[in-house]
């Protein structure tokens, strides 16, 4: 059963100021494509700055996989405006290309050229590229071009300070965030049900056909009730975190488990080898994880790092600072991949996850949680869909669980709206609650209906062209245009400085990294 948190909500209502400064950040990935829908095979455009050193515009796996990173802010409107301005700036500087509006790429065939992202000649740049080469050799290149939204979220310190009485550990902030993370594993599939938007995928992604797919003439496979195939074993590179014993129960064991994975050889990846017959490096190492960022999970604990400091070192010294939600598909109905309603619902849900008590997890609990995610990912909109509660033997319908959660969210929404003297959170709740009784309102249902009717290529290109036109029209009114132009210049200078400093100081790249 779901805990009754009426007392905790009353506690919030009596001191709403503790929710005043929620900080957020957004990272949006999108593929650069040619006007005909093909993958762009050009280098990262010079006019967008250095992908190594630019603060807000970089690349992810491939040269054509853009990543936009907003500053952190306690203003949702500022974040969305800045993200919009990033898109406008990029669109203006890639006039003959477009940005693909979906999480799942459209592929004509398996021979699509995918160029691994390059970051220059510095040691750091070579490590970043070799890490991506390792991802290709471990998991394949197509799967690494799938795009998503990462939502970074932190609650004010005063919130955790006032919640301290519920935590016995001295690092009550980290304990609180780990509680939130466990609850996201327990109930975060609600967000995927509502906002998942990848119910179809190219057949070229499939290694083996596990499910009874329907297929259209474009070699696009789909399941009638699916929400997010991006998160399934078809599209998402899942780290076997139960095998690594990563349970998010306490920070010390999390760090130790992740550190072990980074330093333990993998039989599977050892078979790939470090070098090929030509002497070219194939991956950073043969360990279970090449580095921390290869831990692919639905949500991760994070902390800003100091120069030369790893994430694990930062977490060990100063604890968890925020969480990164990684399970969000690109919203195809938003030009920037996410809209305000989603952010409002995410805020409410993550606050709820921080309030409700999350028991410590063992492997059995974790596997039950994963079964719930798989149910929603593959057949979330199925009529009378049931979800496991507490154990694999007790079930409730998705509608029952969803409406129970949203009864709490509505109360939290009123507290936040009273604080800011508007009705935004409550309105978002009212509109989104309808999705439970009417699955056709979900993003996945709307998206699937559209691509079945018009085809994924036409739908994608129509939206890409529509959004491109909007961004171009906005460019001359782009309030961040001058800032972004200056950052472009600065980033190129910074990359050259890094490379020149290595030459001047006669630093040598370790033999493993001479690629």
Automatic annotation (TrEMBL):
Organism of provenance: Buchnera aphidicola subsp. Rhopalosiphum padi
Keyword match Ligase: yes
Lineage: Bacteria, Pseudomonadati, Pseudomonadota, Gammaproteobacteria, Enterobacterales
Keywords annotated in UniProt: ATP-binding, Glutathione biosynthesis, Ligase, Nucleotide-binding
GO biological process: glutathione biosynthetic process
Entry EC no(s): 6.3.2.2
Name used for this protein in its record: Glutamate--cysteine ligase
Pathway: Sulfur metabolism; glutathione biosynthesis; glutathione from L-cysteine and L-glutamate: step 1/2
Domain Glutamate--cysteine ligase per the UniProt entry, residue ranges: 11-376
């Amino acid at each position: 059963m779901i805990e009754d948190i009426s007392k905790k909500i009353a506690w919030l209502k009596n001191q709403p100021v503790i929710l005043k400064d929620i900080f957020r950040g957004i990272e949006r990935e999108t593929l650069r494509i040619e006007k005909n829908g093909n993958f762009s095979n050009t280098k990262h455009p010079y006019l967008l700055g250095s992908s190594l050193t630019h603060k807000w515009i970089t690349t992810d796996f491939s040269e054509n996989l853009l990543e936009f990173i907003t500053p952190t802010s306690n203003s949702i409107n500022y974040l969305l405006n800045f993200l919009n301005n990033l898109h406008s700036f990029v669109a203006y500087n890639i006039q003959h290309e477009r940005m693909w509006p979906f999480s799942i790429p459209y592929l004509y065939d398996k021979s699509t050229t995918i160029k691994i992202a390059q970051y220059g000649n510095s040691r750091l740049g070579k490590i970043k590229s070799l890490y991506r080469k390792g991802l290709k050799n471990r998991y394949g290149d197509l799967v690494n071009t799938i795009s998503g939204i990462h939502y970074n979220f932190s609650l004010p310190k005063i919130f955790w300070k006032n919640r301290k009485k519920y935590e016995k550990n001295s690092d009550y902030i980290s304990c609180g965030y780990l509680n939130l993370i466990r609850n996201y594993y327990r109930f975060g599939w609600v967000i995927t049900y509502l906002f998942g938007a990848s119910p179809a995928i190219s057949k070229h992604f499939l290694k083996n056909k596990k499910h009874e797919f329907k297929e259209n003439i474009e070699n696009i496979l789909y399941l009638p009730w699916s929400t997010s195939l991006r998160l399934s074993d078809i599209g998402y590179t899942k780290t076997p975190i139960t095998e690594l014993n990563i349970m998010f129960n306490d920070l010390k064991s999390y760090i130790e488990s992740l550190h072990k994975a980074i330093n333990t050889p993998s039989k599977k990846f050892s078979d790939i080898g470090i070098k090929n017959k030509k002497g070219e490096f194939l991956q950073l190492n043969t360990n279970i994880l090449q580095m921390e960022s290869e831990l692919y999970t639905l949500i991760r604990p994070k902390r800003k790092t100091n120069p030369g400091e790893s994430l694990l070192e930062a977490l060990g010294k100063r604890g968890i600072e925020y969480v990164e939600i990684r399970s969000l598909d690109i919203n195809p109905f938003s030009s920037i991949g996410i809209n305000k309603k989603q952010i409002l619902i995410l805020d409410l849900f993550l606050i709820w996850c921080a309030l409700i008590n999350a028991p410590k997890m063992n492997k059995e609990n974790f596997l039950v949680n994963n079964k719930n995610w798989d149910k929603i990912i593959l057949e979330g909109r199925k009529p009378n869909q049931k979800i496991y509660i507490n154990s694999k033997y007790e079930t409730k319908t998705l509608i029952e669980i969803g409406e129970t959660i949203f009864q709490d969210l509505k109360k939290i929404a009123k507290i936040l709206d009273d604080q800011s003297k508007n009705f935004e959170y409550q309105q978002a709740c009212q509109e989104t609650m309808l999705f439970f009784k009417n699955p056709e309102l979900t993003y996945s249902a709307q998206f699937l209906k559209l691509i079945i009717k018009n085809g994924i290529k036409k739908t994608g290109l129509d939206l890409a062209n529509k959004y491109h036109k909007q961004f171009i029209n906005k460019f001359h009114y782009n309030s961040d245009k001058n800032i972004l132009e200056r950052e472009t210049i600065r980033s190129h200078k910074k990359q050259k400085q890094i490379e020149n400093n290595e030459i001047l100081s006669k630093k040598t790249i370790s033999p493993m990294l001479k690629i």
